Amino acid sequence: MYGFERVRRSCIGKICFTLGFGKCCFCMQSYRSGACSCCCSRLLSIRNNSLQVAGAAAEQARVFGREELGGVRQVLLLNINSYASGRVPLSRKDLDSMKPSDGHLELFCLQGVLDLGTMVAGCSAEVVGQPAHFQMTLDEAEYYQMDGEAWRMDVGCTVDIQLNRKVRMLRPPTCPQGIWSGSQVPGFWHSQPARLSEDPR
Hints:
The chain has helices spanning 2-9, 11-18, 23-28, 66-69, 92-96, 113-120, and strands spanning 51-54, 62-64, 74-78, 106-110, 133-138, 142-146, 149-153, 157-162. It is α+β, with helices and mostly antiparallel strands. Helix 1 (2-9) crosses helix 2. The protein is globular and about 45 Å long.
């Protein structure tokens, strides 16, 4: 996605999007995923090939190693039921066990471009865990993306993700028809009556 963002902002990329050929930018960046080298792109530089996750405060932290994860080329954390412009990578069983305000993330570990392709195509992927606290250390420069914005960190670092605070989110109403379609259903988002804040700010 980092390469895609750079192409989209370039002169050629802007022309492609203006003419309606934006998806060509994804094809131009396919080499980053290893699609041109039989999916043999390098693995993420995760220290000791392990991820540390923890649930609620009373739960003991757990470490996922190479034996459980295999070769990881992308680590994905979701806090909603949507990914890649509305795709739902979660199975019905996973959706029943998660809520948007439960304070947990859904953890996926993708081993190659085929895993990513099936997820974007709308197939459910395996949820490795549902941590409330996630941590991993990367020894080399890597690419990152958060809420659609991609960037490259030029040095290794420790990624530490945990709940900061909860905020109210707005969703489209159930009516009129046409707003909700396909696998996106309003029932996932538990609506609550809106209350005006006492503080005018």
